[in-house]
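Chapter summary example: a protein plus zinc ion.
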Amino acid sequence: MAVLIKNGIVVTAENEFKADVSIEGERIAAIGENLRASEGDEIIDAAGKYILPGGVDQHVHFSFTYKGSKVRGFETSNAAAVGGTTTLIEFVNQEKGKGLIETIEDYRKTDADGIAMVDYSFHSVMTDPREEVIEEIPKLAEAGYPTMKLFMAYKGMFFHADDDAILKALYKGKEAGVTIMVHAENAEMIDVATKRLIAEGKTGPYYHAISRPPVVEAEATRRAIYLAEMADAPLYVVHVTCKEALAEIRAAYNRGQKIFGETCAHYLVLDTEDLAKPNFEGAKYVCSPALRTEEHREALWEAVDRKWLNAISSDHCGFDFAEQKHMGFGEGNSFADIPNGAPSLQNRLNILWTYGVCEGKISRSRLVDLFATSPAKINGLDKKGQLAAGFDADIVIFDPDYEGTISVANNLEGVDYCPFEGFAQKGRPETVFLRGQKIVDDAKYIGHKGQGKLIAGKPYGSAYQW
Ligand code: URP
Ligand code: ZN
Ligand code: ZN
């Protein structure tokens, strides 16, 4: 049986138009006017609704650990589905003593396959830059994992990477079209500032932001750009949050370097002052880089609108507030002990629509590009992120008339809080298809565990092809 979605407004990264969409098996069969159904087909009337491609969230943590605390995993990936995201790409930190691919494969078999409720892929994170590991980087491309990240931040943690590792990764990645990504913050600057603050008794969550101001991000962004220039390799900067880092990326791009970047939903709507909330609630907003002020948010909205940044991810990290409090509160503890990260898997589209499209900051087409099309291209997912015949039938029927309030009460992330609690929400994903199968109906998840499948990325993603 096929599915015919009639009378909706199809939104692509380029334009929008009224059309029908037909699905056969796992793929989009046709998009056009007055498409005909065959007997037995399911027909959905989408009049008054927008038809969007299923989202591609290229920045998710389902296995991240911070000082012994571990995030929620793929068993909560139905939260992505109800948020209109049908493909997730998770960062897998290389385990000491193991290879890059071996780490991903071992983790995938036990923690993703048979569990994931949307499609998935992985980025490698190099933590152990031995010579043989550097030599393995080109093999990531053959294995279907053509992207690798290095953490410039987090001094003293096993996943911190120095310039030596980044430069070697850039040279090696280029040999096989592996896109190198960086978390750009200067670890030494943060470390010195953190120790000074703690010595002064400034230990609460708010000081997390004071310990890592924009200059920390700008310095590392610039340094990574110079490393990429030396290797003559493309570079992708994850979670860009401030105007200073944006300026570095723009300047490099204008010099002719292949430098690209993303931001995340929470950096577009949350504020440094959230870290000052009473009763230690500021801990809910401890993420790295830190939340910024209005002027930076305005710069980020302009950057995503003008294509100076080309994706908006979640950087989803599912730590409980109870755990954040346990780790960071009390005698001898500080903001530096609070597990970093924001649970935001479910609300990426809701935030972008309500605070981006409805407030006139981005067009619907721009949203589609940032939410689905560009992240698919960056990661070499050539059947994802677009509404066109032959692409995977990952489709969101979006109801623009819904009005509600974002709350942990309607959240499937499995975390005890939502950083967007109480935010007004306009519109919602009403029906979602994953490769032709309906997994969300009337805004409720109706799919099943293990329905997601591993998607291999192709090398030489869009950072190589500008
Ligand atoms: O605070 C964050 N972003 N936590 C997740 C790990 C990372 O740095 O991306
Ligand atoms: Zn990061
Ligand atoms: Zn992250």
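Key point: The chain has a mean pLDDT of 98.
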